[in-house]
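Late entry, written up from scratch paper. The run itself happened at the end of the previous shift, but nothing got recorded in the book at the time, so transcribing now.
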Amino acid sequence: MKKYFITMVVLLASVMGASAQVSSSQDQVPEGLPMEFALQLKVTLGEAFTCGETQHGRRTVIPITGGTFEGPNIKGTIINGGADYQIANTAINRTELEAIYCIKTDDGVYIHVRNRGIICSDKDANGNPSFYFRAAPQFEAPADSKYAWLNNSLFLCAPSFSEGFKGIVLNVWRVK
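Output as recorded:
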């Protein structure tokens, strides 16, 4: 019993020491995360439709009909048949999105994409209108392909809007 008690005290002390290290490291925010441009997706969209108000909010589906993408190490087309599934909470001006689709590289490799994010319109600390739209795409490329690097990194994207283009342009960066 005494050995058990001593073991528990030692274990508790080491856990408390580890938690103290964790909290002190949380205070050290990195100045900036190094990022590099990975690719730009020009996604064409079909006509949006709604499933109405659900138990989670207003469900909207936006078909993904095609498009193109290009980056320093990748280029190709966006496959028709995916969709952007959005759920809006109008009371707080917030929409969650999840786009699921596939892309095909110019050399014939198919890659699955799942892009989750949020859109928020609100007011900043000074009462001015603000707009936030960011997402984190995840890529699922064949492990034996030259695109396997997509499987092993985190990515962030932000939209840019272009007049005359029926769709959305997403600029994607890889967190180094």
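The two ends are 50 Å apart (CA to CA).
(Scratch paper discarded after transcription.)
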